[in-house]
Every structure is written in structure tokens, then in C-alpha cells.
Design goal:
Helices cover 72% and strands 0% of the residues. It has 15 helices and no strands. The protein is globular and about 60 Å long.
Length: 333
């Protein structure tokens, strides 16, 4: 996509997908598209019994989790995930502290600032979380998504600057960096993603897509059962989908060819349909709210969240056997 080559925009704002979202928001806000077109968008993306998100999000989750190397997945549960949690705690502390100055409540900071920034980007983070937010509030997902993307774009700028500064810190103080290595003790098995080295056929991709549908249905049923039990906290169906997929991967119950098909399925959705989804979300988002999100208070809160995540991770990284610079870049940014 040529939009991904626009200087500055691509490096600091978020590339072509964010541009598609912003331009679609302009067209939707100022009614530059026909009314029938907007009705079609609402059917495609809106709250229907089944919409495009019902395929997009499960395809990304299953394709991502199922194709991570089993040993990597097991090690991440005990090592890398706690490091990410430390980053989220630091981000929350920084955001809440600055948020108090501007009269923001902790829950507002967590839901509308920390989660979008620390959630894993647009496709893997903001989109699934908007679906969860919509399910819990009953309001359109685009209502949360528009603000989330704005905050995420602001934080991306600070993250890129922090990444460059951390690189300089590593050059000045070599003891803080592993020169690309994350683990301090590299004699043990390092945490690395291992791609499934099998070329999938069309039947493998189809099987992976069917498996995704079955897992999503089971996750939906488990989510409904969990809700009916009236336990003190909620677990969204996407949480059950992640847990089910992790179990299948760790137990090695899925053949490598279907895993390869799942990877191809995930690549198709994340690279080729994200544009359609971002346009659909943009058409249902008020561009004025996006512009309003770039207020000085939001900029400072986003900065505090990024610095909080980086700072907390660097403080504990060495105790957790990670190099501070690499840990801050991979888990904090």
C-alpha cells in the first residue's frame, strides 16, 4: 500500500490503516457518502446477529496464538507475560497520577487510555477491545474506537521517541543492553517465536477457518454459561477463545499443516481486510471527537502512560533476568 510509504505519517502516526480510518471519519461526519452506503456499512460493521468483526477478531486470535511455538508459549506464561503486566502497572500508575491533575477518574484512565495504548496496536488490540466495550455497555463500538485510535496515535509518537532514546541509553551504558538479546541468561532456551515451517494448502486454510468458527462458538457458549453463574467478575467470550486456543497449542492437538493454514488465515485478515474494517469504523465515527482527543491533557496523560510503562519495566527487568533496554522496548513500547 502506497499510503504506508508516506513520510512522517507512516513512522509516527500509524501508516495507511490510520489514514483510511481518519479519511472515512471525515466522509461519514460530513455526509459525503450516500445514505444507502451508510446503511450498508451499519449492516457490515454494526450490531447484528453476525457482523464482520465476528470473523475478523477470532481469525486474528486463533491465527496468532495457535502458531506460536509451544515452548515459547509455555515460557511466556511464567516469564514474559509477568514482565508485560509490570509494564501495564507502570502505565496505569503514570496515567492515573497525571489523570488526577486533570480531574480524570482511575476507571476512565484505565478504560480509555491505558487499554488502547497497552493493548497491542490497532488490529490486535483496539479492535477486539472495542467489541468487548460494546458488548458490556450496549453502545456502538465506534464510539470508543474513535477516541482510542486518537490516544493510540499520540502514544505511538512518544513510543518511537522513547525507543530512540533507549537505544542511546544502551550505547552510553552498555550494561543495560543485551545488544538485541532479551534474556540475560542466554544459555537456556530463549523466548523466540518459531514460525510453522509448513506450506499450507487451501484445504488447510479452510480447515483452520472452520476450526476458528468452532472454537468461537464454544467460547461464546462458555461466556454465556459464565455470565449465568453470576460470579463476581465477567469473562468475555474472547477471553475463553484465547484460553481454548492456548490449550490446543500447549497440548499439541492441532496438526502443523492446520497451524500453517491458521497463519495464512491470520495474515489474510490482518493485511488485506484491515483496510475494509478501518473504513467501516471510520464512517461511523465523528471526526470532531477525534480532533478533540488531541487536547493537551490527553497528550500529557499518553506521555505519562508510556513513561510509566518504560520506567517500571526497567526497574524490575534485571531481577527478572531480562536486559532493561530490550525489555522496555519489547514489553513496554
Amino acid at each position: 500500500m502506497k499510503w504506508d510509504r508516506i513520510p512522517i505519517w507512516n513512522d509516527y502516526i500509524g501508516g495507511g490503516t490510520i489514514l483510511v480510518f481518519f479519511m472515512a471519519a471525515v466522509f461519514g461526519t460530513y455526509k459525503l457518502v450516500p445514505e444507502n452506503f451508510m446503511k450498508a456499512v451499519n449492516i457490515f460493521y454494526g450490531k447484528q446477529p453476525v457482523n464482520f468483526l465476528e470473523m475478523f477478531i477470532p481469525a486474528l486470535i486463533v491465527g496468532s496464538v495457535l502458531t506460536v511455538d509451544r515452548k515459547t508459549l509455555i515460557k511466556s506464561i511464567s516469564g514474559y507475560i509477568p514482565l508485560i503486566i509490570v509494564g501495564v502497572i507502570g502505565a496505569s500508575a503514570g496515567g492515573i497520577l497525571v489523570g488526577f491533575i486533570f480531574g480524570k477518574s482511575p476507571i476512565d484512565i484505565m478504560m480509555n487510555y491505558v487499554l488502547p495504548i497497552m493493548g497491542g496496536g490497532t488490529g490486535a488490540g483496539a479492535v477486539p477491545m472495542s467489541e468487548i466495550w460494546s458488548a458490556k455497555t450496549g453502545r456502538p463500538a465506534g464510539e470508543w474506537f474513535g477516541f482510542a485510535i486518537s490516544i493510540l496515535s499520540i502514544a505511538n509518537v512518544f513510543a518511537i521517541i522513547c525507543g530512540a532514546l533507549l537505544k542511546k541509553v544502551g550505547e552510553v551504558k552498555p550494561s543495560l543492553t543485551g545488544n538485541g538479546e532479551l534474556l540475560i541468561d542466554n544459555t537456556k532456551e530463549a523466548i523466540r517465536d518459531k514460525e510453522v515451517d509448513v506450506k499450507p494448502e487451501l484445504t488447510d486454510t479452510t480447515a483452520a477457518f472452520i476450526l476458528t468458527g468452532v472454537l468461537f462458538m464454544v467460547a461464546h457458549i462458555l461466556g454465556e454459561v459464565w455470565e449465568s453463574l453470576n460470579i463476581g467478575f465477567d469473562l468475555h467470550r474472547l477471553v475463553f477463545l484465547i484460553l481454548l486456543t492456548m490449550f490446543l497449542n500447549i497440548a499439541n492437538l492441532v496438526p502443523d499443516k492446520i497451524k500453517a493454514g491458521a497463519k495464512r488465515m491470520q495474515t489474510f485478515f490482518s493485511k488485506h481486510t484491515i483496510w475494509i474494517l478501518m473504513a467501516a469504523v471510520g464512517f461511523t465515527t465523528d471526526v470532531k471527537e477525534i480532533i478533540a482527543a488531541a487536547a493537551p491533557s490527553n497528550i500529557l496523560i499518553a506521555l505519562a502512560i508510556v513513561l510509566g510503562a518504560v520506567g517500571f519495566i526497567m526497574l524490575v527487568a534485571r531481577k527478572m533476568k531480562f536486559y532493561p533496554v530490550e525489555a522496555a522496548i519489547t514489553a513496554g513500547l
